[in-house]
Design brief:
Blueprint: H1 2-8, E1 13-17, H2 59-72, E2 101-104, H3 111-120, H4 131-136, E3 138-143, E4 146-149, E5 158-159, E6 170-174, H5 176-179, H6 184-187, E7 189-197, E8 200-209, E9 216-224, E10 227-229, H7 232-237, E11 240-244, E12 250-252, E13 257-258, E14 265-267, E15 270-272
Antiparallel strand pairs: 1-11, 2-6, 3-4, 3-6, 4-5, 7-8, 8-9, 9-10, 9-13, 11-12, 14-15
């Protein structure tokens, strides 16, 4: 954390190419975003229970439905007032009655069903297990007679004889924060800036997200002169560096810095305004 504290204090920063010779291309490895390393939620408690009676379609489950539809194909069916929010008289224990659940209809026998579950529960490139589930505020995943829960995450899926079969859909339950799109998956914004440089167009993509230090900016991808750095390890080891107006003078290209003061970035001889 000491490293980040130094970086956070920066009132301005710039990115420059320390070496003229670009290194080997880095492949883009990303299926959805975001996951910067230092705003990841801990595993959510399952203590917001029983669900309140508020059968609305909250934004978190709806945005997950749209995300899964985009990457994995549309659900086999969707009923707006049943597969997220649901009438309160259906069940006193269902998260649907508070609009805190999503039933994404895909048959358990379809290969994409396993792909969806694997994607939600994958370990990110920083080694954080179940990072997407944590960032989305997911507390339960039910399908094929088994359940994964955030409070027993390391146990993986376990039998759930009282859950019902769930062979034709995957069920996701959310915290109230996740259901209202207030977790880091939803509050982290993606940005991009570019500039014309001597070697062509330099493009920088970055995250912006809240923290105790105010808004932070964190570079997530640099493409220039035929080279692309698109993972945090490749950015950290790349010839690109982040220069700050306040110490330390130089940090790696993947270091987060404060965006409190409307600063700018520089790529070699080119000026790229990030914020």
């Amino acid at each position: 954390m000491k490293f980040f504290k130094h970086a956070f204090s920066a009132m301005s920063f710039c990115i420059v190419l320390a070496s003229a010779a670009p290194s080997a291309r880095a492949e883009v490895f990303e299926l959805g975003w975001p996951y910067p390393p230092n705003n990841l939620e801990p595993y959510a408690a399952r203590n917001q229970y029983p669900p309140a009676c508020s059968p609305t379609n909250n934004p978190g489950p709806e945005r997950l439905r749209q995300l899964l539809s985009f990457w994995f194909g549309a659900a086999n069916q969707f009923k707006p007032h049943w597969h997220i929010g649901r009438p309160c008289n259906v069940s006193a224990t269902s998260y649907h009655r508070e609009g805190r659940a999503l039933d994404f209809y895909v048959n358990a026998t379809e290969p994409r069903a396993q792909s969806i579950v694997n994607w939600i529960l994958a370990t990110d490139e920083y080694g954080n297990p179940h990072s997407k589930a944590r960032r989305l505020g997911i507390i339960e995943i039910i399908w094929k007679n088994v359940i994964w829960t955030s409070d027993r995450a390391n146990e993986g899926f376990r039998p759930c004889p009282t859950c019902g079969p769930h062979n034709d859909h995957i069920h996701f339950s959310f915290t109230r924060e996740g259901a209202n799109a207030l977790t880091s998956w939803f509050t982290t914004n993606d940005g991009v800036s570019s500039a014309a440089c001597s070697g062509g167009t330099a493009q920088v993509k970055y995250w912006t997200y809240p923290s105790g230090y105010g808004p932070l900016r964190h570079v997530r991808r640099i493409a220039y002169a035929g080279s692309t750095y698109a993972t945090q390890p490749s950015l950290a080891s790349s010839p690109w560096r982040v220069y700050t107006a306040l110490g330390p003078t130089t940090v790696a290209a993947n270091a987060p810095v404060s965006a409190l003061y409307g600063t700018r970035a520089f790529l070699g001889a080119c000026s790229v305004t990030l914020f």
